[in-house]
Amino acid sequence: MTERIVGPELELVSDSETGGKKGVGLSPSGLLRSLNSSFAYGRPWAITLLAIVTALIAGAVLLTVTTPATLQAWGSFFSNPIGALSATWFLVGDVYRDIFTGSIVDPPALFQAITTGQGWVAVLTPLSETLTQATPLIIAGLAVAVGFQSGVFNIGAQGQIIAGAICASYAGWAIQLPSPIHLALTVAAGLAGGAIAGFIPGILKAKTGAHEVIVTIMLNYVILNFLLYLLTNRPFRQPGQSNAISRPVDASAQLPHLLGSALPANLGIVLALVAAYLVSWFMKRSTLGFSFLIMGANPTAGRTAGIDSKRVTVLVMVISGALAGLAGMVILSGSTLMLTSGFGGNVGFDAITVALLGRNRPLGVVLAALLFGALDVGGRAMEAATGVPVDLISVIQAIIVLLVAAPALVREIYRLKATSLRSVELGTRGWGA
Amino acid sequence: MSGTGDVAWTGGVSDTGAKLIATSTVTPTVISMTRIRGLGVVSLLLTAIAAPIFGFGQPASARVIFTFGSAQSIALPQLALPVRWFSLSMAVVMLLAGVVLLLTQTRRGAYGVFAAAVVAFLWSFLAWAARGNSLNLTSVLASSLVASIPLIFGSMSGILCERSGVINIAIEGQFLAGAFMGAMIGSWTQNLWLGLLAGAVVGALIGLLLAFLSLRYAVDQIIVGVVLVALATGLTNYLTNQLLNPFQGTLNSPSTFPALPIPILDKIPVVGPVLFDQNIFVYLAVVLVVAIDIALFRARWGLRVRSVGEHPEASQSVGISVVRTRYRSVVLGGAVAGVGGVAFTLGSVGEFSVGMSAGLGFVALAVMIFGRWRPYSAFLAALLFGFSDALQSILAVLNVPIPSPFLIMAPYLVTIGVVAGLVGRAVPPGADGKPFLQQSKG
Q1: Does domain B139-437 have CATH number 1.10.3470?
Q2: How do residues B260-309 score in pLDDT, each as one tens digit?
Q3: Which of B220, B293, B338, B430 has the smallest set of CB atoms within 10 Å of its CB?
Q4: In terms of residue numbers, what domain contains A185?
Q5: Considering just the CA atoms, what is the radius of gyration of chain A in Å?
Q6: How is residue A340 annotated by DSSP?
Q7: Do the Cβ atoms of A397 and A353 come closer than 8 Å?
Q8: Which residues lie below 8 Å from residue B359, measured CB to CB, with a gap of 6+?
Q9: Would strands B134-136 and B63-67 be described as parallel, antiparallel, or unpaired?
C-alpha cells in the first residue's frame, strides 16, 4: 500500500523525465547531478530524508516555543535578538547533540578510546543499546508490514507482543532444559503466543466480517488486562515480591550477549535480521506470499484468480501475530527477563510507524527501526541530561511518518518537481473490504 | 481546495439527483437468518448461565434491595426482592427470547428481542452481584449515561465524517487533544467556555489535517488517522510533562462544569436525576444526537453529505462539490470529537492526565459501526457500552469475586462480541474510505 504510494509508475515517469540528463557516470559532476535529480524528482529515499529533516526542524520549533527560558528570550527579541537566537541555538543544539551521543557515539570519548585504547565499553554502549532497542521494532515492524502488504491492518501488534511474551515467559521458567533447546522452545512459545493472538482477529474477520482494526485494538486492551491479572496471581507472580512482576526466565532461555556481558547487544538482532530475510524471501518468492501480495494489491483480481481470500486473511494475521510474538519474546529474553505491567512499552504502536516509514519492505523496516531505536535511546539520554521530556521523540517520529505517508506534501513543501499530485493509489478499502 | 473544474453540472445543485444518489445505493441492512438463529442460541446460553447460578443457586432467603434515591427527586420506596425468584423470572424472559429467535420466520425485530434477553441477563446478574446489599438504580443509570458521553460524541463525529465518505480513525487523537486544550485553556483563562471552545477548535484542526491529507493528497485515510493519533498522543504527552506538570497550578487546574439541574423535571423520580440533573456535556450530547439526525436525514445539507458518501462521482455530476462537502463534514466531525475530549477534563475530573482517553476513541468507532452509521442507533449502542463501563465500577464496590482486570476487560470484550456477533459485515456508506479523485472538465 504505502509501497504503492511511491509506486513504480511514479518512478518510471520521473526516470523518463530526467531522461538523458541522469548521467550515471563516475565523474563527480555526474554523481552530483544524479544526486540533484534524485531530490528534484522526489525519489523515495530523498522524500524520507527530507521528511526526517523537516520533522527535526519541527521538533526544534516545538522545543523552543514550549521551553520557558527560550520563550522569555524570544519575548525580548527586539531588545536582544542575539540572546533569543543563541538561547534557541544552545537549547536545540544540546538536545540534538545529546540524542546523537546517547544513541550512536560520543566523538570525544571515541577519540580518547582510539588514542588510549581504553574505555571501549563506554564508547560502544550507546550503539549497542540502539541495536537492542531496534531489535523488537524490526520484528514487530515486519509483522505490521506483512499485514499492510496483504491488505490487512494489524493494529494489534502491542497485544500480540504481550501474548508472545506471556507464552515465552512461561516456557522460560516453568520448564528446565539445556540451553540451546530451552532457548529454541522459548522462541517457539513466543511465536505461538503471538500467532494465537493474531488468529482471533483473523478468524473473526474471515467468518463474521468483524473489521480487524477494531478487533485488534480491543484485543490490545484485553491482553494487557490479562497480563495484569497474571502478574498478580500464581503461577506467574514472582514469589516474595510486592510489585506486580513475573518470575524471571531461566538463564538457559535468555538470549546470549554478542559483544561480551558488559554490552547489551544480544542474539536478538541476529534473529531480527534472519526474520527480515525470511519475510523478504516469503513475500517475493513463495506462492503463498505471492497470494498475500495479490490480495493486498487487488482483492477482486485475487478472488477471480481463485485465491481463497478468507484463508489468506487468517494466515496473514497468524504470521503477522507470530512475528509480533517473537518481538515480545526478544524483549523478554533479551532485556527485561521479567514481565511487568508496562511490558513492551510502546513497541507495538511504534511498529506501525516503523512499517510505514520503511514502506513495508523488509530492508526499509530494518533501517526505519534502527532510526527509531536510535531516537528512543537518544531521547532517554537527552531527558536524563537536559530534562526535556522524552515524548519529544514520539512527536518527531509521528511527524516523520506523517510526511513519509504523504510524499506529495513533502514535494510541495520543498517545491520538488512532481509528476502529478494525484498519482497516489490507495491500499486499504474502508470497513467493507 | 476545490479547483475550477469541480462542477460538471452547471445549473447548480440538483437535489432530486442528490436524493436519488443518497438513497438508491444504500444497501438495506439485512440480518441473515443464520445470525438470528445464532442470537437465539446465545440467548439460551445466557439462560443456562443465569438460571442455575443467579436463580437456583441462591438461597430462598437472599434478598437484594433496589433503591431509587437521590437528594433532589421525589423519594420512591425501596424494593426488596428475593434474588432467586427475580433471577428466575428474568431467566424466563431470556428463554422466551431464545425460543422466539430460534423459531421466528421474520427478520424484523430480531435485535429488539435479543436486546431484551441481554437486558434480562444483566438484571439477574446485577441482582446476584448485589445480593445482601442494596443497589441504587438511579446512580447506576446516571453513571452509565455519564460513562457513555465520550462515546456519544465520538460516534457522532465518526458518523459525520463517514457519511461523507471519510474514515476518521483519529477520534482518539481528537479526544486527547480536546481534553488537553480544554484543561489548559480552561485553567489558564479561568474560563470554562473558552476551554470548551479551544477543545472544539483543536479537534477541528486535527479534522482539517485529516481532510487535507486524505482529500488533497489522497493518502490512505486509515493510515493518516493512525498517525494523527500517534501525533496527538506524543504532543499531549510532551506538553503535559514539559508544561502542565511544572505549572500545574496555572495550566492544569481548571474547575469543572457544574451540574445544571432543570427545574421541576429534575424532581421526577429516577428520570429526573439521570437526565435532568447533569452537566452541560450530557445535554449537549443528547441535543447533538437529535441535531445530527435531523441534519443528516431531514435536511438538504445531509442529503448532499450522504450522496457524497455513497457515490461521489454521481454527486459531482449533479453539481455537488465533493471535496468541499467532505472538508466541511470532517472538520465539523473533528470539532464534535474535540468537545467530547473536553468532557474528559472539564466534564469530570478537572485535570488532564497522559493518555486519559484510554482507547475510547476506538471504542467510539465500534459504537458507530454497531449503530450502523445512524445517530439514534449509535446513541443506544453508546449507552450499552456506558453501562458495561459503569457496571465495572459497581461490581468493584460490591466485592464480586471476579478479578478487576477481567472487569476492566468487559467493555472491550463486549466491543469484540458486538462487532463480530451482532454487526458482522456491516454496510458502511458506499464510498467510505475511498479517495475521490476529482475529474476536471475536458
Answers
A1: yes
A2: 888 887 777 777 778 887 888 999 999 999 999 999 999 889 888 998 88
A3: B293
A4: 133-372
A5: 24
A6: B
A7: yes
A8: A217, A220, A221, B172, B412
A9: parallel
Q: How far apart are CA A288 and CA B147, in angstroms?
A: 46
Would you say residue B337 has pLDDT above 80?
Answer: yes
CB A12: neighbour CB atoms within 10 A? Answer: 11
* Contacting residues of A for B437, CB less than 8 Å apart: 422
Dihedral angle at the C-alpha atoms of B113, B119, B122, B127, nearest 10 degrees?
-120
- pTM of the predicted model as reported, rounded to 2 decimal places: 0.85
Residue A109 exposure: Cα atoms within 13 Å on the Cβ side: 13
Is there a contact between B363 and B415 (Cβ–Cβ < 8 Å)?
yes
**Could B224 and A352 be called an inter-chain contact, meaning their C-beta atoms sit closer than 8 Å?**
no
Domain count, chain A: 1
Joined grid coordinates for residue B175: 479526544
Phi-psi category of residue A199: left, alpha or beta, with phi > 0 → left and psi -120 to 50 → alpha: alpha
Question: Does A259 fall in a domain?
Answer: yes
Q: Is A361 among the domain residues?
A: yes
DSSP A167-204: HHHHHHHH----HHHHHHHHHHHHHHHHHHHHHHHHHH
| Distance separating alpha carbons of residues A43 and A414, to the nearest angstrom | 13
Extract the C-alpha cell encoding A96.
Answer: 540534538
Judging contacts by C-beta atoms under 8 Å, the chain A residues touching residue B353 are none
Cβ <8 Å between A424 and B217: yes
Q: B362: which residues sit within 8 A by CB, 6+ positions away?
A: A213, A214, A217, A218, B169, B171, B172
Q: B115-136: b or e for each residue (b if 16 or more CB lie within 10 Å)? A: bbbbbbbbbbbbbbbbbeeebb
Name the closest residue on chain A to residue B244, using Cα atoms: A66
Alpha-carbon torsion angle B9, B15, B18, B24, nearest 10: -130
CA dihedral B21, B25, B31, B32 (to 10 degrees): 170
pLDDT in tens, B398-426: 777 788 888 888 878 888 887 787 765 66
- Asked if B303 and B19 touch (Cβ cutoff 8 Å), the reply is yes
Average pLDDT over chain B reads 84
pLDDT digits (tens, 9 = 90+) for A230-240: 998 888 888 88
Q: Rounded to 5 degrees, what are φ and ψ at A370? A: -65, -45
Q: How many CB pairs under 8 A join A and B?
A: 174
Model pLDDT, residue A17: 40
A228 touching B (Cβ < 8 Å)? yes
Interface of A with B in 352-391 (CB under 8 A): 352-353, 356, 388-389, 391
User: Across-strand partners of B278?
Assistant: B260
ipTM: 0.83
Nearest CA in chain B to A2: B220
Listed residue (B217, B142, B179, B122) closest to B360, CA to CA: B179
The stretches of B130-170 forming alpha helices (DSSP H) are 137-163
Which ranges of B371-421 does DSSP label H, i.e. alpha helix? 375-398, 404-417
In a domain, A289, yes or no: yes
- In chain B, the residue whose alpha carbon lies closest to the alpha carbon of A397 is B231
Dihedral of alpha carbons B401, B403, B407, B412, sign: negative
Residue window 51-70, chain A: list those with CB within 8 Å of chain B: 62, 66-67
B301, B19 Cβ separation under 8 angstroms: no
Q: Average of pLDDT values for A25-34?
A: 63
> Do the domain assignments include residue A323?
yes
Q: Which of A163, A206, A218, A224 is nearest to B418 (CA)?
A: A218
Per-residue confidence (pLDDT) for residue A238, from 0 to 100 = 85
**Tens digit of each residue's pLDDT (9 = 90 or more) over A201-254:** 999 999 888 888 889 988 999 999 999 999 988 888 888 877 888 999 999 999
Q: At what angle do helices A120-149 and A309-331 cross, to 10 degrees?
A: 170
**Domain definitions of chain B by residue range:** 29-132, 139-437
Chain B residues lying within 8 Å of A229, measured CB to CB: 403, 405-406
